[in-house]
Design brief:
Blueprint lengths: L1 E7 L2 H15 L4 E7 L12 H6 L6 E2 L10 H21 L4 E5 L3 H10 L6 E4 L10 H11 L2 E4 L2 H11 L5 E3 L3 H8 L5 H8 L7 E5 L10 H14 L4 E5 L7 H12 L5 E4 L3 H11 L2 E4 L7 H5 L3 E4 L12 E4 L3 H11 L17 H13 L6
Parallel strand pairs: 1-2, 1-4, 2-3, 4-5, 5-6, 6-7, 8-9, 8-11, 9-10, 11-12, 12-13
Helix pairs in contact: 1-7, 1-14, 3-4, 4-5, 9-10, 9-13
Length: about 375
Amino acid sequence: MKRIGILSSSRADFSIYEPLIRGLNALSNCQVEIIAFGTHLSPEHGMTVESIKANGFSIAHALERCFSETDSPLGVSQAMGRTLEAFANFWSRERFDLVFCLGDRYEMLAAVLAGKPFNQVFAHLYGGETTLGAMDEAFRHSLTHLSQWHFTATQAYAHRVAELTHEPDRIFPCGHLSIDNLSQLPYLSTEQLAERCQLNLAEPTLLVTLHPETARYQQTAEFTDELCAALEELQEYQILLTMPNSDTHGQQIRERVLALSQHRPGMVCVENLGTLGYASAMKHCRAMLGNTSSGFVEASYFAKPVINLGQRQEGRLMTPNIVNCDFNRDQIARTVRTHGTQIFDPADSAVYGQGQSCHCIIETLETRIFPTLQP
């Protein structure tokens, strides 16, 4: 029996993991244990650990206070220290045959770094990507170096991981699990979605998410003000805005968008729509606006028009449905009105696989990775 750990620090990574966890649970030779930490246990971010349980998953381990209690650089750095210490204690008493880590968050880096002295074996999902506008760039590549096995979203990203590790036989371009998820979900209707977010997405709606550019965090307030001014201008659209993650100066975004929603008609801010709710919002919205990675990966499945703001995601693969835009209120409004009304062919954006990523990962585990693990 292989003991498999799943490191999950936020709503974002767990929604990606879901197909893989279900697939692993179906194997008779695997004991899967979810290790929840980070903002999953933060009341300010919706205590999404409860959403995991509500979706039918059990949590084997929950590590508290592994998130930033303020949005300052000091708060983030202190959170990394607390997470490192919490996981040092955790790895000292828990041993897994393999642990999955995902993405590029600072909490994830601290958790994996703490496991290195214990020779814990890690498999990293989605290395090789580039986000030049975020400190996550350094964290992602560090996670690649700390992991022994690698599953990438595209062949191009696999090549980049190989340049870092010089071990191409340990890298597997299996596509993205988000596409598996999106191909299987029972989407909510616009009526059902309205019950969750108080907006009728049958009307033209922008799905908006803005995270801090951690490489330029001092300009967070300025960037948010430009976006808010554009949203005021775009009165022909409803606005469904999902709140930012736990990053440096994220509170400045929260305060400004919440203030705008108090007087801007047809604008709703939500902390967490859940996997099904967010995917359904993507399906029914007219366009996406902001700087979230879901505008690159998940939006490609729907070929939804995406207006990507600023530099946070700079370096990611660009598909035809995505256009870049600076943080300038007039340019944002103009780009939404031109690019946001276009129709794109999903076949032109299908760079992250055809929904077979989970099958690829599990087949690789059984044929290539499990035989190498010590009994």
